[in-house]
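Could you help me review a protein record that somebody else here produced? What it holds is a sequence and that sequence's fold in C-alpha cell form. I need someone to confirm that the C-alpha cell line plausibly describes how this chain folds. Take the sequence as given and treat only the C-alpha cells as open to question. This is what I was given:
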Amino acid sequence: MPAVKLRGVGKIFAAGAVTALREIDLTVGAGEFVSLIGPSGCGKSTLLRIVADLETPSSGTVVVHGKTARQARLDQDYGIAFQQAGLLDWRSVQENVELPLQLHGVGKRERRARSAELLEITGLTDFARRLPGELSGGMQQRVAIARALARKPPLLLMDEPFGALDEMTRERMQGELLRIAEETGAAVVFVTHSIPEAVFLSDRVVVMSPRPGRIIAVLDTGGWGRDGDGDVRSSEAFFSSVAAVRAALHEGHREPRAAETAAPTSAVGRDVR
C-alpha cells in the first residue's frame, strides 16, 4: 500500500484569486524518501499541509496509508516537523519530545527511554531539562525533529526541518534521519530549498514549477545517503545528480506556462557510484 497517493490535487486561496497548486499527481511508496523542491511560493509547503490534513484541497483526492487524510490525522499515522519548531514553552525539552508518546498512553519508563535515545541522536542530552526559551533556534528545531520521530511513525512529513541548523549539524541530522527511516521503514516526504540536500537524502526528487505549482519533473536520484557515506557528496556522479535537478528547476523558471500543461518527466540521476 502506498504511503501517500495524490490524484488531481489543486488548491485555490483567497476566493479564487490565487491558484497555489494545480493537478498534482504523486504516489509515495512505503519506505520511500521523496523530496519536494521548487521556487519560493510554488506550493511545496501547502502540498505537505494538504497531506497532513492541515489544509483542504480545492480539488482532487488524498489518500494516506489507504485512509482519507483526515482519518490518518486522527489516527496520528505520521510525524511532522515544520520550519518553526512549535514547542510548548512550559514543557521541558524532554517533556516536549515525550508528548506524542504521552498522548498515546505510553508508560513513563518507556517514554523516558525513547526520549533519552532521541536526545542523544540530536545532541541535546545535556539540555533535557531546559525550557525551549533557553535554547537557540537551531536547538529548538532539533527538539521538534526528535518529537516528530518519537512514535516511529510509518510516515514523516518534514518542511525544511534542517534550515536553521549549522552545516555540520545539518549533515549529521541528515544521516540520522536516513538511519531512523531505514530502521523503522518510514516513508518521508521532505520539503527543502537545498538541491544537494534533496539529492543526498532522496530516492526521488519532485521538481515543482513556479505558481501555480505543478510537478514538472520527477528525478530518480537513487538515495545517495543510504550507504551512510558522507563522502559521496564530493563525487563527480553526485554533482551530476545535483546538476540534473538544478537544470529541471531552471527549465521550470524559463517556461512557466509550458510547465502548467507539460507532463512530468523522469530522469535517472545516479548511474555510477
User: Anything to note?
Assistant: The CA atoms of residues 51 and 69 lie 6 Å apart. The longest helix spans residues 236-254.
